[in-house]
Structure prediction request, 309 residues.
Amino acid sequence: MRCIFSLILLSLLSMARVSLARDVFVNNLLGDDARDGHSRVISTSVTGGPVRTLTHALEIAIAGDRIILANNGVPYRESVTIFGGANSGGPISPFMIEGNGATLNGSVSVPSKAWENYNGDVFRFRPVHAAFGQVFLDGRPAKRRMLVRQGAIPNLEPREWCLAGGMIYFRVESDKLPDEYPLTYAAQTVGITLYQVRDVVIKDLVVEGFQLDGINAHDRATGCVLEGMIARGNGRAGIAIGGASQVTLVSCLIGDNGDAQVLTDGPSKTLLQSCRLLDNTAPPLVKRGGEVTVDDGPDEDHPDPAAAN
Prediction:
């Protein structure tokens, strides 16, 4: 009898959570974090309308909410953490982020005064975070030259770069300076961190240009789903899953990352469904621990991640 009563109570609580769940709208061009986020457009009231940042949307969200990003063609330049009960959901009403194809980008321009001449056409600068790195030229990952031996700078061709001794080296073309190139580098550490959350769904978002990982399920991120994601051009991994996390990747495209497209660690559990992990700049899957199950599903023609958006 107690068991039946407990099941009824849990069902009622789940139904209540569904009824309380709200939509929170985010628009990085028209929004304002002083608004309540309850409507897609700015209303006549003082507080009605979308918020500007995903960071603030996560702060005001409650369990089971759905955060909806506007895709204005302008990247959201933030690093966010999804944490705790307020950013969690349940099997019936997951906590959701709908990206609508928007981009979360962690790169910034290289300050002109940061460059120093190293040797001839080779210049260098020291990034804020030096363990991993990524350099972009015209908005795409620039060609990287890996070190043959530790500390020795390889022979760079024009427009190539390398990371050595905590510094980024870039070779310019003859009679050019670094300032004449549209160069950016991965500055913010992680795009999205999932920590101590359950039943979170993130859909249709591009995550790029972060110094460490695009998405990091750090620990105890259980029942989480990443669907239709593109994770590209991050310094270490596109998606990293560690600790006691249980994450499903569905129809994701992951490539152009530094050390691994997908990295798993600890006692984590990862399910890959109809995903494409490119074997271009790094191994598709680096398994330092954890359990990985792959369900390829039907063959599909996937685009180049660098060409998306």
About this structure: The longest helix spans residues 2-20.
